[in-house]
Amino acid sequence: MKKYEKFNLGNIKLLSGKILNSAQLIYKTYGKLNKDRSNVIILPTFYTGSHIRNEGFIGKNRAINPNKYFIVSINMFGKVFFLTN
What we know:
Blueprint: E1 5-13, E2 19-30, E3 40-44, H1 51-54, E4 70-74
Parallel strand pairs: 3-4
Antiparallel strand pairs: 1-2, 2-4
C-alpha cells in the first residue's frame, strides 16, 4: 500500500503575484468510494500537519469509520510531503 498519493497542481499564481512552479498536493485516502459517491469526507490537516497525524481519527471504532466513509486526508502546503521543483 502506498504511503500517500500526489496530485500535480501545475503552476499556481499566489496572491503576491508570484508563481509557485510545479506544485503538488499530497494526500492519502482511506475506505472505499461508494457507487453514487455520497460517502466522501475531506479531512484537512491542521497548520503544518500531515495525513499521518489525521490517522488517529480514522478507524473502525474511531470518529471516522473507513468501512462507512471514503476519507481524503489532505496535507497542508509547506509540510515535508509538499514538494516543488
